[in-house]
Amino acid sequence: MPHARIRLRLLVAAFLLVALAAPRQAAAQQLKKVTVVYTIVSGDSVAFWVAEEKGFFRKYGLDADLKFITGSNQTIASMMAGQVDFTNAGGGAVVEADLQGGDAVMIGSLVPYFLMSMYSQPEIQSVKELKGKRIAVTTLGTATDFARRIIVQKAGLNPDRDTLPLSTKGPSEILQALLTKNAEAGMVVPPLTLMAKQKGLKELVDLIGQKVPYVQTSVATTRRMLQKDPGAAESFMKAIIEAVAFQKQQPKATKEILNKYLKNIPDDLLDETYQRYVVDMYQKYPRVSHDGIQTLLDFVRLNNEKAKSAKPEQFTDTSILEKLEKAKFADQFYK
Predict the structure, then answer these.
(1) Phi, psi angle pair for 117, to nearest 5°
(2) Torsion sign across C-alpha atoms 190, 244, 218, 316
(3) Which of the 8 DSSP states describes residue 44?
(4) Domain boundaries 31-114+215-333, CATH class
(5) CB 178 within 8 A of CB 92
(6) Domain coordinates of the chain in residue numbers?
């Protein structure tokens, strides 16, 4: 009899363990697996980092595999191949892919202006003096490259023939190229703009102060995803909206996350990153700027016939944001 009671207790305990584990397993099975890519290690990516670190992707039913791929063009190409579901690629890469027949689409925009400046060696007095000179960018086709091309074009130079783009892979590498004089100029993003000034480099063109409309950082997916699984796209946008709300109300915790991904930068650079991106740029609802897309089209149409008849609306799908904004979804996160 004692042995029978022991066996019964063990059977009951085992049953309870299975019963308790079942809901957790079911919940895990219900999560939608998605691949999420950020394309730059800077404040442009903080909403993706916060959504991952604070569990917002999982909260809205997504099992997100967060990855880093250098450069928007490479990321969009991977997305066209079905290897990436969501990204924060620059708007320029989305537009160029679509003009070539792709189905990338912007469902949001986190940085709706050019948030960078062109810095140069101290002896350079004007953009025209950069003829035949090297201008450092992250990679070709990214926001830094589009900014370079637009600035050079406005100065009366041909960006493809008159200057030499130097692909460096990342923002820190751009600054390093300038400091080692491997480039005469370069596109520098916050907070490295502070360091560039401290090191005696010259701010040749202040795009930040000009607030030039542009989709520097999008929230992009494919039209295939919107058709096949609109619920996943809505869940992704919910996670981003809550991440933005968290950032704006929890500066200390947000800076800790920033510091993790930016690899322990000094406090003044951390504060500058938070101010420039979270405070100055990020919106309660990350709407796509049609003016920003138009800035891009006005430039691209100089060399692309398809861009001449293109409209900003054809590169966006605002239905998810409109739905969430109408429902006042974000209000619950602001106290």
Answers:
(1) -135, 155
(2) negative
(3) G
(4) alpha beta
(5) no
(6) 31-114+215-333, 117-210
* Integer Cα distance of 220 and 233 in angstroms: 10
Q: Which fold has domain 117-210?
A: D-Maltodextrin-Binding Protein; domain 2 (3.40.190)
Q: HEC profile for 287-327?
A: CCCHHHHHHHHHHHCCCCHHHHCCCHHHHECCHHHHHHHHC
Q: Residue 208: CA atoms inside 13 Å, Cβ hemisphere, count?
A: 19
Calculate ∠ Cα 107-51-27, nearest 5°. 100
Distance in angstroms (rounded) separating the CA atoms of residues 56 and 242: 7
C-alpha torsion sign, points 308, 298, 45, 241? negative
Q: What confidence tier does 160 reach under pLDDT thresholds 50, 70, 90? A: confident
Which pLDDT score is estimated for 29?
Answer: 56
Q: Which residue has the higher pLDDT, 252 or 7?
A: 252
Distance CA 193, CA 263 (A): 17
Q: Do domains 31-114+215-333 and 117-210 have the same CATH topology?
A: yes
CA distance 78 to 85: 9
What would the pLDDT profile of 75-97 be if each residue is shown by its tens digit?
A: 999 999 999 999 999 999 999 99
Phi, psi dihedrals of residue 155, rounded to the nearest 5°: -85, 0
> For the whole model, what pTM was predicted?
0.84
pLDDT at 14 over 90: no
How confident is the model over 101-154, as pLDDT tens digits?
999 999 999 999 999 999 999 999 999 999 999 999 998 888 899 899 999 999
Which tokens hold the place of 177?
């190229």
Sheet arrangement for strand 62-68: 62-68, 32-38, 86-87, 213-222, 104-113
